Amino acid sequence: MLKGRTALVTGSTSGIGLEIARALAADGANVALNGFGDAAVIAGIEKELQARGARTLYHGADMSKPAEIADLIAQAESEFGRIDVLVNNAGIQHVANIEEFPPERWDAIIAINLSSAFHTIRLALPKMKQANWGRIINVASVHGLVASAQKSAYVAAKHGIVGLTKAVALETATTGVTCNAICPGWVLTPLVQKQIDDRAAREKIDKGRARTELLAEKQPSREFVTPEQLGALAVFLCSDAASQIRGAAWNVDGGWYAQ
Questions:
Q1: In the chain, which residues fall in CATH 3.40.50.720?
Q2: Torsion from C-alpha of 194, 198, 200, 206, nearest 10 degrees
Q3: pLDDT > 70 fraction of the chain, expressed in percent and rounded
Q4: 47-51: long-range contacts at Cβ-Cβ below 8 A with a sequence spacing of 24 or more?
Q5: Residue 95 needs a FRET pair 20 to 30 A away by CA distance; which of 84, 210, 217, 258 works?
Q6: pLDDT tier at 189 (50, 70, 90 boundaries)?
Q7: Nearest-CA neighbor of 35 among 78, 64, 66, 6?
Q8: Residues annotated catalytic, as ranges
Q9: How far is Cα 21 from Cα 82, in angstroms, rounded to an integer?
Q10: CA distances from 180 to 86, 150, 173, 239, 254 (A)
Q11: What is the pLDDT of residue 90?
């Protein structure tokens, strides 16, 4: 389905972003990767995707810096012609009560989790409109739909991503470009594993119990969403069957939002 098209996935050197990149490559897309990590690991990811038939590009843009984002888009368009599928996945987290929340962490979370998507969309959209085809997929969170304590910046950013998704969907409604958000619940990524580890240390419990308690508090299925499930959803949102799905916030959360 995506043969000959190009996908840019931010934050794609691990976790959700990597699995989305894998899924898009498996469906025929060339992939521009972005994220931090060991150079040898990233080279291994490129080789893996190339073995699936994809052409690849890696760019280590810091997604908090607009100039680096602009260079990322420019290099991807130079290499592949245009970006057909844009997946805004890059994100960071910090947990603290608001009165104790470091202002610099607030600024970083808003920059990476929200503002970076504004910059990638505004830069990639013109060529999508020119081609009259494009898919913009913003990886938000169930925290783009509901809140949790001690996550003021993350919740604010993810609610902002859902709002940005709706606005872009309306602006592109008469074109062949769609814009939607995926809103995962708990996914066992390095980001969530750190929360489990921190909880275990804080409450002086073992990590297995911390994991169980984390799920039980929010996710009725008591099972983690898998990155592979999110990758499959991203591929679906690129399909013709999804051409009239516009401005949706798809919660994939084991029933979290249903409560």
A1: 6-185+225-251
A2: 40
A3: 100
A4: 48/22, 49/21, 49/22, 49/25
A5: 258
A6: confident
A7: 64
A8: 154
A9: 17
A10: 11, 27, 12, 13, 20
A11: 98
pLDDT in tens, 144-188: 999 999 999 999 999 999 999 999 999 999 999 999 999 999 998
Give 22: exposed, middle or buried? Use CB within 10 Å, 0-12, 13-18, 19+.
buried
Strand-pair category, 85-88 with 134-139 = parallel
The CATH superfamily holding the domain 6-185+225-251 is NAD(P)-binding Rossmann-like Domain (3.40.50.720)
Categorize the per-residue pLDDT at 204 as very low, low, confident or very high, splitting at 50, 70 and 90.
Answer: very high
- Which residues make Cβ contacts (< 8 Å) with residue 227, sequence separation at least 6? 15, 16, 18, 19, 20, 187, 189
CB atoms within 10 A of CB 11: 26
Tokens matching residue 135: 């898919």
Q: What is the pLDDT of residue 57?
A: 98
